[in-house]
Design goal:
Two copies of one chain form a homodimer. Chain A is of the alpha/beta class and about 550 residues long. Helix content of chain A is about 30%, strand content about 25%. Chain A folds into three domains: about 280 residues, Metallo-beta-lactamase, Chain A; about 150 residues, Rossmann fold, CATH 3.40.50.10710; about 90 residues, Ubiquitin-like (UB roll), CATH 3.10.20. Chain A is built from 17 helices and 28 strands. In chain A, strands 8-7-6-3-2-1-21-22 form an eight-stranded mixed β-sheet. Chains A and B meet through helix 11, helix 13, helix 14, strand 25 and strand 27 of A and helix 11, helix 13, helix 14, strand 25 and strand 27 of B.
Chain lengths: ~550, ~550
């Protein structure tokens, strides 16, 4: 059995912050039994993925090996860890294990995708373990910005590895379990081969603050507000929502939650018992009748999402509620890089309404991820031989590896698709498997490299010209017809672009050799070439061109 | 003449940071003589303006009144102040005044747009003045992140107004004039009706640092680097480019400037005499032969621009130069909100190469704009009755007005298109003129509301389906033909989307009433409706649809 090995293969999350999906394997080379940790999504942007609804890790390699897959473990209920469970489960078909609150979300994902929610099994935390093939997995509670997060202690015949999940070191997280160093020391005692560790905040140099530090500040702020107060945070940050609601209550305000995600998250937290003593809330229809100075709204949309409550309030009324001059809007959140434009649009819309914005993210927000000193502390608590950075862009992984080495640990940067053999004394990448991305586009899953999104981007940059030509017995019947979408109607010659195009295309057809007219490919190439040249001359950009040649026969 | 009034009308820059264009007027109501201060551009983004090359203020109102326009004044050579001079001059046709370095740039803009560069006149700084209609205008030197910036002191028969231009308070700006409080006190002595003031950094609470503070830090950093050093900053920040080059020289490195904008800016600065003692540089072809540890590149592209030198180096070779493991890349710059994604892409590409990135923007960068305490100081120096915030998004203008009022000044928030009557003791908005945006799209100027860009965005979000139908004597000839761009080829029914569409459209045509087949509009509407329904059912999104009906007649 000397050929058995222990491997780690990130398929998502090691090269971006998002779409987490990490595989562990144990067994003979190429026949390892496998488990998958997390199955999340990441979000599209207009620049690189216009029209796309969600981005997920490409599971091709795992699907090809799904007879070897024994289980899926979900560390916590954030979308980048659980969001793809429903969509991708039917291709993987392994039991899904999670703690109660997370399982509640995973089951909803399964239902939404038409899968059986009973495939999701609720597990108890460490010292309980789940056996899956050669793996014994324990969920060790860890503090994060959502209840019931867990790191995993994974035992195999080749030794132990520890998977941090997302975490921060918070001794008073408000809702959910406090970080328990003694428990972590005990759960990870003995030889640990490797520690797969969250890298998100490796560039933040100060120790993280506790969620509990915010309460006093937020309470003071809300108490001093003369008119309506509206606050936004991530819906999944149940502790923060509670902190905000308590501040409202303490100031004698009625509290109203706005946004489906927010209400659903609080319901799930109450149902699964992780949330107790949440202040009484009122529904939006009652909120309209409460004097504004006695009202506090807690709303979704801290990242500027166009359809969330914050953006709706910035555009005007939402469920009959609206903001007025002198109201206060609190961002109890941090803008994720890339979302600045949407958030700034909202700040300016509120400014036009005369709303006072508070967005000091040092005072009214703490991150859910461990900063550098806390990462170093966690490295020492787990005491693994090797630290393998995960949950980060390349720059985070690389920096985290540096930090680990400076702390006296081995480290290896493993990006999506890299297979690391953890059996050796010095782990290193032994192979690369396919690890791309797929897109949920409406109801359909497409590959990132299918060219579909590339075509959309090209149309958005260059406009689209449709050229129609009808041929009868290989001779033009009438003149070509041009339709234009997304291009100026008139170019430098001051004649309509469509007219110039039709004229030039017609000239070409009149003179074209029979050989060209008989050959669809050649004809299309020529018509496309002329169209691009004309749009370049007239507008200064080469349009995307679709040529439709219709051939009639006698 | 009691009806003469003094007015201020921002057409761009008061509601965004960019495309500055401010009008002042003096004379009888509706017949005021006018001057324009600055004529800049702003930059497009994929989210709201895909395919657009530049964004400029809509000059419709000013063009309609151009017989009243006496002059254009350009405060400094940043693109958001001078960038539209060439493109829009032919519509305005008034003399352009600027100081030498700025005039150098304005002339190039004129030449590039095929206009006469001699329309740009070089002016000397205060106490010299330019007379333009009823206006006397003096250019008062002020420190900023580009040489020869000026604020304007504008005298009219109705009194004096002061226009700050972009500025910071820097006593040692490196290149260009230091802030001279005594000069500013003298130039603005006496009654000042209104002070139009830069609002960019109103949310930065600490006093600004001097450019000279950076030199020591950068020198230390470069001296300690073991391999090649590459640094980026704004090309127009001539002082910073010099600081960087001097740090390279002090470390015994050959210095090479990469990127057309960078070389052109330094040339202009040398030509106009604002830059002296710039370290000797070598051309890229020589840089290839210099040992890496003796080389320093100073490059364009600090904002992640795809075609600039930084992005090119992140993708691989640029002019035969490339980055290696252990090289250092310094961002001596700050990422402008909205540009994060592009910059982060570059950070990760460098990380994959093993390049060490330094981007501490507190240590290696200072802003060109006055922070709040410096704004307050400047309010007091100018001592105007009213402070009118400009050069900012709405949130900056509103906050700046608050700050001014707290300092004991009157203030009024005037956004693009708002006409402020400055003659009254308490200035307020008396009218709104049209003040939208226009886009340079390739070589053509289009309106923001023309629908062209909206169509591009729709194609990018929803894909584009082209439906072709040929009718002969109002009866379908053959079957409809569908082309698809930017949509998945196969939908939920697992049949090709084009086939499903053609089938359903054909079914419709076979059964369509003669009345429908004879009516182009009706026929197109029906074909579009069916196409959108099918794409919704199959893909989950309603495609953009172009219908082409060709009618043949016997």
């Amino acid at each position: 059995m000397s050929q058995n090995r222990l491997i780690y293969v990130p398929l998502g999350g090691a090269g971006e912050i998002g779409m987490n999906a990490y595989v562990y394997g144990y067994g003979p080379v190429g026949q390892e039994r496998l488990i998958l940790v997390d199955l999340g999504v990441t979000f599209p942007d207009m620049e690189t993925t216009p029209g796309v609804d969600l981005i997920m890790a490409d599971m091709t390699w795992l699907v090809e090996n799904r007879d070897r897959l024994d289980a899926i473990f979900i560390t916590h209920a954030h979308e980048d860890h659980v969001g793809a469970v429903g969509r991708l489960w039917s291709e993987l078909r392994a039991p899904v294990y999670a703690r109660a609150f997370t399982a509640n979300h995973a089951r909803r994902k399964m239902e939404e995708a038409g899968q059986d929610p009973d495939e999701v099994l609720t597990v108890e935390p460490w010292p309980e373990t789940v056996e899956a093939g050669p793996f014994k997995v324990a969920f060790v509670p860890i503090s994060h910005s959502i209840p019931e997060s867990a790191g995993l202690v994974i035992d195999t015949p080749a030794g132990r590895v520890v998977h941090s999940g997302d975490f921060k070191i918070d001794l008073e997280p408000g809702v959910g379990e406090a970080f328990d160093e003694a428990m972590w020391r005990e759960a990870t005692a003995g030889r640990v081969r490797a520690f797969m560790c969250d890298s998100t905040n490796v560039f933040s140099m100060h120790p993280g603050r506790s969620e509990s530090d915010l309460g006093v500040e937020i309470e003071k702020l809300v108490a001093g507000a003369p008119h309506m107060v509206v606050a936004t945070t991530f819906a999944s940050n149940v502790a923060r929502v509670k902190t905000l609601a308590e501040a409202g209550q303490a100031a004698g305000r009625s509290v109203c939650l706005l946004g489906r995600a927010m209400r659903r998250m609080i319901e799930a937290a109450v149902e699964t018992g992780v949330l107790e003593d949440f202040p009484k809330t009122i529904p939006p229809e009652d909120a309209r009748d409460v004097p504004r100075e006695n009202l506090m709204l807690i709303v979704t949309g801290s990242q500027g999402e166009r359809r969330a409550a914050t953006a709706q309030l910035a555009r005007g009324k939402y469920l009959g509620l609206e903001m007025h001059e002198g109201d206060m809007f609190l961002f109890s959140s941090k803008t994720i890089p890339g979302n600045e434009r949407g958030v700034i649009r909202i700040l300016n819309a509120f400014s036009e309404m005369g709303v006072d914005i508070v967005s000091d993210d040092d005072r009214y927000h703490v991150s859910g991820h461990a900063n550098r000193p806390d990462l170093e502390r966690m490295h020492r608590i787990v005491g693994a031989e090797t630290v393998v950075p995960m949950h980060g862009e390349h720059r985070h992984l690389r920096e985290h590896a540096k930090v680990a080495k400076e702390g006296g640990f081995q480290s290896v940067v493993a990006v999506n698709g890299a297979m690391v053999d953890l059996t050796k004394a010095t782990p290193h990448v032994v192979e690369h498997v396919e690890a791309d991305r797929v897109y949920l586009d409406g109801k359909v899953i497409i590959g990132a490299l299918d060219g579909i999104v590339r075509d959309r981007i090209r149309m958005a940059l260059n406009g689209h010209v449709i050229v129609n030509v009808i041929l009868e017995d290989d001779a033009p019947l009438g003149e070509p017809w041009v339709e234009i979408m997304g291009l100026p109607e008139v170019g430098t010659s001051r004649a309509p672009l469509a007219d110039v195009l039709e004229e030039d295309l017609n000239q070409f057809l009149m003179r074209a050799a029979d050989k060209t007219l008989r050959d669809d490919d050649k004809l299309e190439d020529e018509l496309r070439r002329i169209t691009r040249k004309v749009t370049q001359d007239e507008i200064g950009k080469k349009a995307e061109v679709t040529v439709v040649v219709s051939r009639l026969e006698e």
